[in-house]
């Protein structure tokens, strides 16, 4: 039964991340008529990621008090409504979508709690590693699905945004059904008072309070803080997933939605194969912290080199191949190690704090790469590579 529940949760995650990232190649269509469109894309991304600052801890706390299933259902409905806002291809609806979808995206604290609820200790690392891999892969599989759709039906330039938005609405409706049919993984939840919810919301908006709560949890679970710090540095570097569409669309490559989708089709397919082999047969057999160190150390120059490809599509594909073998494997390793430092009583809270801090990091990196892109569209990749080098340094410190 636990295996069925696990597969059920993986299916929900898989569809959710595909929906969230499939719209990436079409987002330039919403802002192309504005001055400095790369800046407005960055603003939309900042709104999307920044909303998690308060929603992740709140949803995590609610899932501890009322169960995981209600949060899955609420988030699925919210994503469906947010995707409907993309059907009119207008800039105002784009920003409304970013706010709405960013709020429900805070459910991933609940996702990690649900997986941990039903995972035996010996399978915990592997199961959460797969979840992390699915999320990472979603950033590339979603645009690949968009590419297949646009290619199969030979959709012309002016209709591409609406067609992809319709696909997103359709898939998010499927996720509402899957969420409704999910069996509860956290039976007999104790409930939570209104006062406690208000306090959680107030605390989630205070970064200093979030960090203080993390330090308290680190005293309870030694080693948690440095794992969260690695996660935050990784989040700063994964801003390149959100920035790539801007770079490819408005930079020297001048790629349209189809060309971007073709690139992500390759990226996604290769990532699926490599991640399956790695998390299925290798991740449990290596020193995970040492693995994070080497993947980050080797991946840092790769991220920096994206900005140097110029007009060469060949070099772009070479770099992304190495990316799949290094940087793309780190997320699942960190989440697996973190999950081992939780308990049934506060799992949702810990994952919620972590995701909220990730929301802060995502907002910060979006502001930074948005500002750097105004100077030169290549500069943000130097920032992303530097942040990944920090992950390597933190992993080395933890190893010592």
TrEMBL record:
Q: Name the family.
A: Belongs to the major facilitator superfamily. TCR/Tet family.
Q: Which GO terms describe its cellular component?
A: membrane
Protein species of origin: Spirosoma linguale (strain ATCC 33905 / DSM 74 / LMG 10896 / Claus 1)
- Locations listed in the record: Membrane
Check the record and name the SUPFAM superfamilies matching this protein. Answer: MFS general substrate transporter
Molecular function (GO) terms for this protein are: transmembrane transporter activity
Q: What does this protein do?
A: Resistance to tetracycline by an active tetracycline efflux. This is an energy-dependent process that decreases the accumulation of the antibiotic in whole cells. This protein functions as a metal-tetracycline/H(+) antiporter.
For this entry, the protein name equals: Major facilitator superfamily MFS_1
Keywords in UniProt for this one? Membrane, Transmembrane, Transmembrane helix, Transport
Task: Please indicate which superkingdom the organism of origin belongs to.
Answer: Bacteria
Please give the Pfam families that the UniProt record associates with this protein.
Answer: MFS_1
Q: Topology in the membrane?
A: Multi-pass membrane protein
Segments forming domain Major facilitator superfamily (MFS) profile:
5-400
- Residues crossing the lipid bilayer are 6-27, 39-59, 71-89, 128-151, 163-182, 223-243, 263-283, 290-308, 355-375, 381-396
